[in-house]
């Protein structure tokens, strides 16, 4: 988006977040029952926030009273990086649900050391990249003050992306950090893919509930609660809610900018086959030997 990035502890942090990151690393105390949602920006964070909130609080709110109907998911589930700046907003959810874009090896120690659970969502990085470009353009009014000179042209931005120079990047290290943590302790870290959720959301709603220790009862399933949560949190439903159609979040970002297309492989409308090939090579060179490479094959990048 043109805002300065600084390399800190092996990742590229947006300059304006560095102070918050350092503060968080020093002062944040995770509780054993916290639920941490982790992702690279534009990988499905908003969707995961809506789903986790609805799953965890399903006995507190009926579907037609769910706060998602009147609040943007980002107003319900705060980012770790924002907590101290916004005076620790009251958590509407018990247990607490907190999101973060910070890579695994840089999250506060208490997140790694406590029993809190982490749900990671990743997405085909090319779709995430294209989604990010639209998001930054839509919210130019927020990012403008951090601009170095001007927006990067697509090719230039893509070149930087392939070098890993992107907010919270390199994305391959971001994925690998959480993937390896999942391999080491699958009960602590659940690793999800946006594309899989698009394929069978009911299955993943149940998986998330099981992982969080609150599986759906037979009775709840019979009542169709899984499907109701899927519908409530669907792209079409959230996008068309009045609260998400207009207005701004407290940081000035447009509520509507979190709901653009919600599709898989939209990158094909913007990037050339040559660009995709270059990207594929990068993925192979960085992720060879790790199962995380299936993210590209799964998404059939070159087909
Ligand atoms: P697109 O720009 O490709 O449409 P994040 O939430 O991490 O910022 O990611 C935003 C991306 O997720 C956007 O992708 C957005 O449209 C998509 N998205 C938001 N809510 C969604 C939902 N309920 N279901 C599926 N995709 C969703």
From TrEMBL:
Database matches in Pfam families: Sulfotransfer_1 (PF00685)
SUPFAM superfamilies xref list: P-loop containing nucleoside triphosphate hydrolases
Sulfotransferase domain: residues covered: 32-290
Keyword Ubl conjugation found: no
Keywords annotated in UniProt: Transferase
EC number: 2.8.2.-
Enzyme class: transferase
InterPro entries per UniProt: P-loop_NTPase, Sulfotransferase_dom
PANTHER family linked: SULFOTRANSFERASE SULT
Protein name per the record: Sulfotransferase
Organism: Rehmannia glutinosa
């Amino acid at each position: 988006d043109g805002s300065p990035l600084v390399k800190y502890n092996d990742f590229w942090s947006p300059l304006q977040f560095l102070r918050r990151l350092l503060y968080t690393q020093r002062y944040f105390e995770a509780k054993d029952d916290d639920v941490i949602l982790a992702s690279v920006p534009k990988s499905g964070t908003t969707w995961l926030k809506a789903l986790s909130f609805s799953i965890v609080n399903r006995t507190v709110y009926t579907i037609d009273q769910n706060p998602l109907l009147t609040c943007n998911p980002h107003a319900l589930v705060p980012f770790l990086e924002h907590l101290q700046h916004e005076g620790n907003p009251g958590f509407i959810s018990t247990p607490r649900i907190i999101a973060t874009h910070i890579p695994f090896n840089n999250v506060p120690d208490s997140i790694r050391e406590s029993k809190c659970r982490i749900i990671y969502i990743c997405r085909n990085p090319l779709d995430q990249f294209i989604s990010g470009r639209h998001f930054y353009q839509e919210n130019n009014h927020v990012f403008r003050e951090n601009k170095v000179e001007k927006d990067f042209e697509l090719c230039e931005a893509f070149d930087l992306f392939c070098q890993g120079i992107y907010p919270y990047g390199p994305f391959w290290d971001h994925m690998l950090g959480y993937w390896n943590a999942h391999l080491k302790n699958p009960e602590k870290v659940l690793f999800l893919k946006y594309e899989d959720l698009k394929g069978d959301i009911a299955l993943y709603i149940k998986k998330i509930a099981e992982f969080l220790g609150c599986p759906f009862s037979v009775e709840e399933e019979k009542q169709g609660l899984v499907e109701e949560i899927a519908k409530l949190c669907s792209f079409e439903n959230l996008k068309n809610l009045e609260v998400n159609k207009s207005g701004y979040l407290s940081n000035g970002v447009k509520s509507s900018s979190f709901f653009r297309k919600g599709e898989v492989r939209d990158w094909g409308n913007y990037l050339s086959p040559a660009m995709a090939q270059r990207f594929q090579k990068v993925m192979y060179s960085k992720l060879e030997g790790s199962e995380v490479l299936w993210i590209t094959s799964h998404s059939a990048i070159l087909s």
